[in-house]
């Protein structure tokens, strides 16, 4: 209703001005033709640059080995690359390794960062301020300072080449950011809800689990997405900790197609597409919440 | 009654006062078991909730950090760390050598070269990414047909794991038969050694990192732009402000606080950006694109013999640099009256 009124009001103003014989004024938010063309041209170029490399990866994955570097969009359409990657390499093992690690990281990460976020948002307790500072500081920890000592520790406790080793490592990357984000998110949920829950006889855990968590779904989506992306796309720790063909994750596996010894670009493209698709699906699901989640986290950080 | 204090979000935000007050009981002289029990019974909910995170952080960040600092003061390398060969485990034989590693590193030109390039890399990436992100966000922050489609296309690079995109770029950059050179040669221009000429390699890694970083900037800035009330623009227009003036005096101040955060975050991320350089050039040609983190990784994991002590020392130096940066950034913000 309100918007309708405004539009009507603006239209009247324009008619009035035109009747006076002045040059036609643009309505607010309206652009000249040139500006409109410029806008679309710039956005088109930017969008093309953004989309092109992945798109090229996709079209190349359907070309036979001999045509990998041809310039044409389609040449000799074939699914051989996919067939080879899935059946003749350890790709499915790597995929399985990655899925296990990512699921564990996401589930544990989301759960412990939301309990922490909730405690930080609702309770005042000794150790709260140091904890908040630690969370903030660990976000800027370079992996370079941790990777060597972690490698030595993992090797001492036999955790190299074990998914568990990577899961705990990824938790430390994902959890500080997620906890911080969940805290900002819980801050936006009125305390009155907690209080009513307490009055009705729930203990704080019950309040958290039965009342607040269901309300926090958008926040949970963002943190889950972040943990997923962190674990799915991490390279350094995965490269250092996982060796031996059957232990690799996808990040390590993709590197085996193209290196000093082999140049199997055609297989690499097929594997890359298979890795990217799940990531895009998860992203597509989470991106609705991403903007609000991010800005809530960013402005309050 | 063992009820924890429920703070309103606003109060919890202030943090300082709340924590000070809550810490009260423990501050009393001697404390005593009674006070401890009281604190425990009041706060155990909260402590139970944060326990897993505290545990993980201490185990995987605190303890390795201490060990890393210690390792950097030793001569540990592949040959003398504790290791298992078959059923025999060989005990560690490395020794404490004090600050020697640091003296070596700081006296070596290689460190300063890498540092210089790391700074150039970080500043260039963040500045370009921010400029492009803000421009595109401004363009998308209005009504027109196809807005959603553009938005989806522009954030696509974010949806794909970075290491996958890096391989896509490596294919485009391929010197002999990559698409970029094939296009250039089609027009009669000599192909460019994208990844094996030091200067072009630097430009190439920056380009890929910008490509990867723009979507995050775009979404963050779009969020910031949408939080600026439209009335401000209306009022400015009434007063006859030009488009540039509206951008300069309404948009820029409006996105300031979000910008501060995302610039800080993206500086830290870029400074530590490992996969782009590691997978695109491996730091080459001849170390010309090696930033500090890739160099630290190379020392410990791809160099032969693997030099753990030096790598740990590089790691500690990187951490010190980041801490210095964060402190001065905060100072600079404070001076400008930003509460952060």
Automatic annotation (TrEMBL), chain A:
Region described as Disordered: 1-33
Subcellular location: Cell membrane
Record's keyword terms, sorted: Cell membrane, Membrane, Sugar transport, Transmembrane, Transmembrane helix, Transport
GO CC terms, sorted: plasma membrane
A GO BP annotation: maltodextrin transmembrane transport
Superkingdom of origin organism: Bacteria
Ranges of Basic residues composition bias in the record: 17-30
Protein name listed in UniProt: Carbohydrate ABC transporter permease
Species name: Streptomyces radicis
From TrEMBL, chain B:
Pfam families xrefs: BPD_transp_1 (PF00528)
PROSITE patterns for this protein: ABC_TM1
Membrane topology: Multi-pass membrane protein
GO cellular component terms listed in the entry, alphabetical order: plasma membrane
Membrane-spanning segments: 44-66, 119-140, 152-172, 203-225, 258-280, 308-327
Protein name (record): Sugar ABC transporter permease
Region (Disordered): 1-31
Keywords, comma-separated and alphabetical: Cell membrane, Membrane, Transmembrane, Transmembrane helix, Transport
Domain ABC transmembrane type-1: 115-329
UniProt similarity note: Belongs to the binding-protein-dependent transport system permease family.
A Gene Ontology biological process term: transmembrane transport
InterPro entries: MetI-like (IPR000515), MetI-like_sf (IPR035906), UgpAE/MalFG_permease (IPR050809)
Location(s), subcellular: Cell membrane
Compositional bias (Low complexity): 9-19
PANTHER family, A to Z: ARABINOOLIGOSACCHARIDES TRANSPORT SYSTEM PERMEASE PROTEIN ARAP, BLL4140 PROTEIN
């Amino acid at each position: 209703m309100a918007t309708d009124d405004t539009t009507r009001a603006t239209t009247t103003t324009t008619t009035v001005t035109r009747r006076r014989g002045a040059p036609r004024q643009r309505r607010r938010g309206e652009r000249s033709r040139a500006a409109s063309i410029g806008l679309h041209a710039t956005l088109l170029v930017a969008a093309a640059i953004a989309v092109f490399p992945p798109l090229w990866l996709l079209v190349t994955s359907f070309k036979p080995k001999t045509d990998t570097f041809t310039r044409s969009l389609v040449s000799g359409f074939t699914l051989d690359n996919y067939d080879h990657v899935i059946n003749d390499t350890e790709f499915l093992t790597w995929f399985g390794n990655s899925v296990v690690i990512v699921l564990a990281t996401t589930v544990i990460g989301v759960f412990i960062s939301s309990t922490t976020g909730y405690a930080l948002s609702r309770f005042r307790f000794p150790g709260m301020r140091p904890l908040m500072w630690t969370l903030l500081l660990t976000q800027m920890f370079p992996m370079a300072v941790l990777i060597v000592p972690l490698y030595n520790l993992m090797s001492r406790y036999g955790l190299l080449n074990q998914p568990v080793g990577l899961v705990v490592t990824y938790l430390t990357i994902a959890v500080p950011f997620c906890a911080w984000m969940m805290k900002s998110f819980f801050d936006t949920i009125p305390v009155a809800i907690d209080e009513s829950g307490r009055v009705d006889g729930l203990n704080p855990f019950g309040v958290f689990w039965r009342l607040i968590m269901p309300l926090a779904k958008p926040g949970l989506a963002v943190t889950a997405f972040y943990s997923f992306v962190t674990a799915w796309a991490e390279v350094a720790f995965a490269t250092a900790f996982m060796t031996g063909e059957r232990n690799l994750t996808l990040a390590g596996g993709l590197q085996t197609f193209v290196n000093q010894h082999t140049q199997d670009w055609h297989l690499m493209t097929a594997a890359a597409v298979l890795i990217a698709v799940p990531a895009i699906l998860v992203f597509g699901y989470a991106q609705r919440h991403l903007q609000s989640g991010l800005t809530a986290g960013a402005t309050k950080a | 009654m063992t009820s924890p204090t429920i703070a309103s979000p606003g109060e919890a935000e202030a943090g300082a006062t709340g924590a000070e007050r809550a810490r009260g009981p423990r501050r009393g002289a001697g404390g005593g078991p009674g006070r401890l029990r009281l604190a425990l019974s009041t706060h155990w909910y909260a402590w139970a909730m944060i326990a897993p995170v505290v545990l993980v952080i201490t185990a995987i960040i605190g303890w390795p950090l201490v060990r890393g600092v210690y390792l950097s003061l030793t001569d540990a390398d592949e040959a003398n760390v504790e290791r298992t060969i078959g059923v025999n485990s060989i005990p560690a034989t490395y020794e404490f050598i004090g600050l020697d590693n640091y003296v070596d590193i700081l006296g070596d030109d290689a460190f300063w070269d890498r540092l210089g390039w790391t700074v150039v890399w970080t500043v260039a990436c963040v500045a370009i990414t921010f400029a492009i992100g803000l421009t595109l966000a401004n363009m998308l922050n209005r009504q027109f047909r196809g807005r959603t489609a553009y938005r989806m296309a522009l954030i696509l690079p974010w949806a794909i794991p970075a290491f996958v995109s890096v391989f896509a770029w490596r294919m485009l950059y391929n010197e002999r038969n990559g698409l970029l050179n094939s296009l250039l040669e089609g027009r009669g221009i000599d192909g460019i050694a994208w990844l094996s000429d030091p200067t072009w390699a630097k430009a190439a890694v920056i380009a890929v990192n910008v490509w990867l970083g723009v979507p995050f900037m775009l979404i963050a800035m779009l969020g910031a732009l949408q939080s600026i009330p439209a009335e401000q623009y209306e009022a400015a227009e009434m007063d006859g402000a030009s488009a540039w003036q509206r951008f300069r005096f309404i948009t820029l101040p409006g996105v300031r606080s979000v910008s501060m955060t995302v610039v800080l975050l993206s500086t830290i991320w870029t400074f530590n950006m490992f996969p782009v350089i590691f997978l695109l050039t491996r730091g080459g040609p001849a170390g010309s694109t090696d930033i500090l983190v890739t160099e630290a990784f190379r020392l410990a994991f791809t160099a032969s013999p693997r030099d753990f002590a030096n790598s740990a020392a590089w790691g500690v130096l990187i951490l010190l640099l980041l801490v210095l940066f964060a402190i001065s950034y905060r100072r600079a913000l404070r001076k400008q009256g930003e509460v952060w």
